[in-house]
Specification:
It is built from 6 helices and 10 strands. By secondary structure, it is α+β, with helices and mostly antiparallel strands. It has 2 domains: 102 residues, Pseudouridine synthase I, catalytic domain, N-terminal subdomain (Alpha-Beta Plaits); 106 residues, Alpha-Beta Plaits. Strands 1, 2, 3, 4, 5, 8, 9 and 10 form an 8-stranded mixed β-sheet that branches.
Length: 222
């Protein structure tokens, strides 16, 4: 079995996934990007082994139904070029619901984004049937708790404490109820915004969630 040639360039894409695209699951999203890169003949680097895969890494998976407006994806290439050239080719191939903001060159030696992710920021918006004051009362109640024991999303027989994973919660200004949530994230533990909404007792009221920002370790130290 021949050894795949090594990559010579690492691109970091910042993109949006909104509208109907927010219902695309993580595995299908990875396949979506692979197909998009192939359509524009991006010179993808591949992993070793019997089933080589394109060398791509996401900063963090989005829960199904959650939009993202500043998502991050690294992709490794076998040929080097101006990132703006790659961006133009990719941008023109994307369907509705997907938007590429920028592509920049990332140092090859940087660690994986998953290991560098420290914070994720979300906006949650409800309809006027909730009421801003009710939301504020719920948020104040949650922030006053020293612990929020929740069932583990993968192992319902296990529990965990959600409270230390919440960096901040704040009701956003305006006449309709909206909240900004900043969640801690690390390779060991990450706060789930859907669990915060459930802990507030507001999961049954129609709402929309958007991840607005992903903060990597070097950015928190900057």
């Amino acid at each position: 079995m021949s050894t795949p040639p090594p990559p010579v360039q690492r691109l970091r894409l910042r993109y949006a996934k909104t509208g109907d695209a927010r219902w695309v699951g993580h595995l299908d999203e990875a396949r979506f990007w692979e197909r998009a890169f192939r359509r524009v003949e991006l010179p993808l680097a591949y992993s070793h082994g019997f089933n080589p895969q394109p060398k791509m890494q996401f900063a963090a998976a989005l829960p199904v139904g959650v939009a993202g407006i500043n998502e991050l994806l690294d992709v490794w290439l076998l040929e080097s070029d101006d990132p703006a050239v790659w961006a133009e080719r990719i941008r023109g191939s994307l369907p509705a619901g997907w938007m590429l903001h920028e592509a920049v060159e990332a140092p090859m030696e940087l660690p994986a984004m998953q290991s560098s992710l420290r914070l994720a920021v979300y906006e949650v918006r409800w309809g006027p049937e909730l009421g801003v004051e009710t939301l504020r009362e719920r948020v104040d109640w949650l922030l006053a708790q020293t612990a929020l024991v929740r069932p583990h999303h993968k192992e319902p027989d296990r529990t965990y404490d959600l409270r230390p994973l919440i960096a901040s919660l704040a009701v956003m200004p305006g006449e309709t109820p909206a909240m900004e949530a900043m969640m801690h994230s690390s390779p060991e533990r990450s706060g789930r915004i859907t669990e915060v909404v459930a802990a507030l007792g507001l999961g049954g009221i129609p709402h929309e969630i958007t991840r607005t920002t992903l903060v990597l370790e070097d950015e928190t130290q900057g």
